[in-house]
Amino acid sequence: MGFSDSEVKFGQQELIHAVVPLLKLLCLAVIGTLLAHPKTQIVPKSTFKLLSKLVFALFLPCTIFFHLGQSISVQNLALWWFIPVNVIISTVIGCLLGLLVAVICRPPPEFFRFTVIVTGFGNTGNLMLAIVGSICHNANNSFSPNCHTTGTAYVSLAQWVSVLLVYTLVYHMMEPPLEYYEVVEDEGEIEIVHEDLLVNNLSRPLLHEAEWPGMEDQATEHCKTPFIARVFANVSDFSQSSIPDPDSLQDVHEREHPQSPKSIRCLAEPRMVRKMRIVAEQTPVRHILQPPTVATFLALIIGMVPSLKSIVYGDDAPLSFLTDSLDIMAGAMVPSVMLVLGGMLAEGPNESRLGIRTTVGILVARLLILPMLGIGVVFAADRLSLLIEGDKMFRFVLLLQYTTPSAILFGAIASLRGYAVSEASALLFWQHVFALFSLSMYSIIYIKLLLTYI
């Protein structure tokens, strides 16, 4: 009888610790939805766009710099190596699941790559920081008393890998398909004109800038064209006026700079190497240096140099007033993120040509199957002694990387590339709606497993 009572109490406590933090985040999102709903418009969309920019340029960098900087050290970085590796593993497994979904559900051919990448790339940034912050808000949480600082540091460390993947893998995978280019181009021209007209009255969907404000300013000459496919395909059936020829671009460059060392190097390059270099030059890696990434690099540099760390971090540090100020601003990150998410959901789903079967397949693969596989990966790594011994928050963050819905950043990338814009918007809407239930369910499972076996 006593054993049964203890089991009941354990289950109730476990349920509270897993569900209540998500209910807090849900309340914040509902408030954002009510404030931004088109029927009420208590707060105009321009305010949510400004709030999104504040999160991106101020609140999120402050959060990363404060928590990561005081937690990181050379020793800790050596112990935390599995965090960025796990991001890559989760992305690879997710893409394989996406490939399986695409083969089974057979989406329209032009959305085959979209199905693969949107299943594989999850939200490893703002949403995870919000979940960790909500779970660690109470002192009697299931983890350590300093779980907020360590959890935020773990998530922040994983972000630079995610950002690198966004501006390389995701950016190129979201390239408009070459065989459907004329169709995509026609739609893209309409969308570009439409969006340019809407910039002045601030009516562009919030989803397109939710995690990348001002992304339209980052557009390049070939971002809405199948540039990579044109470079490697050597196809002559398509409009040469609409699809740039990399060979002609190279010839123009050589004529303009005939004596430059770069031209001499290009003349000696093999054709395949030259194509790869041209593609690399069109990869927007320079956009990686955004405020959150800069804050991560600064936190890593200062945190791993003891003499600098003693000046910036700590109650007795000369610059403690600065870090305290950053901590105050960081406190606005979680509510702001959830309010923006609520404002995004208030706009509702767009029309999608992806199909119900493919949409359901992505939801099941991303929100139900991938977390189960993630449990196997994390516990296998634990058995191989690859994880920090006894650190529950470390394992919880690793598990969350498999559990979150697709990154909201897909909306911005889709808009930037002019590919699957409506489909990305609709899919992200439904994923975040159903993630409320899947995150709650798996949070209960994770906490039970961590409290039982760790």
UniProtKB/TrEMBL annotation:
Its GO biological process annotations read:
auxin-activated signaling pathway; endoplasmic reticulum to cytosol auxin transport
Disulfide bond found in the keyword field = no
Q: Segment Disordered: which positions? A: 241-261
The protein's predominant localisation is membrane
Q: Which UniProt keywords apply?
A: Auxin signaling pathway, Membrane, Transmembrane, Transmembrane helix
Where do the TM regions start and end? 15-36, 48-68, 80-104, 111-132, 152-171, 288-308, 328-346, 358-381, 393-416, 428-451
Membrane topology reported for the UniProt record: Multi-pass membrane protein
Q: Where is the composition biased (Basic and acidic residues)?
A: 250-259
User: What cellular-component terms does GO give this entry?
Assistant: membrane
Q: Where does this protein reside within or beyond the cell?
A: Membrane
Q: Which domain of life is it from?
A: Eukaryota
Family the UniProt entry places it in: Belongs to the major facilitator superfamily. Phosphate:H(+) symporter (TC 2.A.1.9) family.
Any idea what this protein is called? Membrane transport protein
